[in-house]
Amino acid sequence: MIKSLVPPCEGLTVPIAKIGGSKQLKSKGLRMELTITQPDDWHLHLRDGDLLKAIVPHSASHFGRAIVMPNLKPPITTTAAAVVYRDFILKALPSDSNFTPLMTLYLTDTTSPDEIKLAKRSGVVFAVKLYPAGATTNSQDGVTDLFGKCLPVLEEMAEQNMPLLVHGEVTDPNVDIFDREKVFIDTVLQPLIQRLPRLKVVMEHITTMDAVKFVESCKEGSVAATVTPQHLLLNRNAIFQGGLQPHNYCLPVLKREIHRQAIVSAVTSGSKRFFLGTDSAPHEKSKKESACGCAGIYNAPVALSLYAKVFEEMGALDKLEAFTSINGPDFYGLPRNTSKIKLNKTSWKVPEAFSFSFGDIIPMFAGNTLEWQPSLI
Ligand code: DOR
Ligand code: ZN
């Protein structure tokens, strides 16, 4: 653990009320620390092979559980494949880790209602992911006919109380990339919820004011959203600042500042409808810094520091724990974690890169100094 850069100084107190009045917040001299229920990551890409082994310790060192996205090559379309993938993840974990992967299935036009029954019975599959075909990384096998071929499966999911996790963008190349989320809400999500009001839906990695309004207009406990650190901290300028910035490119793409502000207000309001989902999505450096760079931001090592920064800047540190550790399990109907994590307000430098035998992974905010350092207790 990196030591505090600020030496403890007896007798000085920090104005706790100013930063949210949180009961979990303690001041030790000039140092501040926050103790919260261990967070979960409700949207994570763990990949496979060497990349999985390289990166899973980063998530496992902070998060108790994670919803693991199924967009591998080939995608995880069956419960049998999810069970095998889960075993690979468990084997890749550090020996002392209690991290629990929560598996998902990749919805296709040919997924059967029986597969959903099997998934529910397995006890290891917790949701089904909808990738509109062509929307993002490894989505070529995704859905082309949601209201036709997929309808029986969606009905079975509603029956089994199995959440649908949605990559909410239309893929029509004629729709401007910055409008694809809004158009998806109007043409797919709203009709879907009207047709299947009992289906639990998570709108993943929301990026717009329109998504915030949509989620807030739906029934609490029925529709929710995950929010990434990048969509809370960056707007679309970050992709072009001083030259093309491939490490700030993800999908859905970063949006205008007004959208970022709307998302920040929503998550720091204390609403139960929003919870932590990093969408941490590593790609080896040469695949990002390329003529046709991959979408995805690797944020697992910095995510908790960044979420704490956002809540602190809004004077809402007392609402951080609900977002990171309570709203997610409550929505999924899973128990909250019993372990705790400590966030120390200590400066630490994000590595420039994580180097592995197969290449480098560049984290979000590489080389920058952050505050709020997490450690398990
Ligand atoms: O930026 C992204 N990267 N968005 C996604 O939806 C997929 C992800 C990935 O798997 O790389
Ligand atoms: Zn994702």
TrEMBL record:
<dbReference type="Pfam" id="PF01979">
    <property type="entry name" value="Amidohydro_1"/>
</dbReference>
<keyword id="KW-0665">Pyrimidine biosynthesis</keyword>
<dbReference type="GO" id="GO:0004151">
    <property type="term" value="F:dihydroorotase activity"/>
</dbReference>
<keyword id="KW-0479">Metal-binding</keyword>
<dbReference type="InterPro" id="IPR002195">
    <property type="entry name" value="Dihydroorotase_CS"/>
</dbReference>
<dbReference type="GO" id="GO:0009507">
    <property type="term" value="C:chloroplast"/>
</dbReference>
<comment type="similarity">
    <text>Belongs to the metallo-dependent hydrolases superfamily. DHOase family. Class II DHOase subfamily.</text>
</comment>
<dbReference type="GO" id="GO:0044205">
    <property type="term" value="P:'de novo' UMP biosynthetic process"/>
</dbReference>
<protein>
    <recommendedName>
        <fullName>Dihydroorotase, mitochondrial</fullName>
        <ecNumber>3.5.2.3</ecNumber>
    </recommendedName>
</protein>
<dbReference type="InterPro" id="IPR006680">
    <property type="entry name" value="Amidohydro-rel"/>
</dbReference>
<keyword id="KW-0378">Hydrolase</keyword>
<dbReference type="InterPro" id="IPR004721">
    <property type="entry name" value="DHOdimr"/>
</dbReference>
<feature type="domain" description="Amidohydrolase-related">
    <location>
        <begin position="41"/>
        <end position="348"/>
    </location>
</feature>
<dbReference type="GO" id="GO:0046872">
    <property type="term" value="F:metal ion binding"/>
</dbReference>
<dbReference type="InterPro" id="IPR032466">
    <property type="entry name" value="Metal_Hydrolase"/>
</dbReference>
<keyword id="KW-0862">Zinc</keyword>
<comment type="pathway">
    <text>Pyrimidine metabolism; UMP biosynthesis via de novo pathway; (S)-dihydroorotate from bicarbonate: step 3/3.</text>
</comment>
<dbReference type="GO" id="GO:0006207">
    <property type="term" value="P:'de novo' pyrimidine nucleobase biosynthetic process"/>
</dbReference>
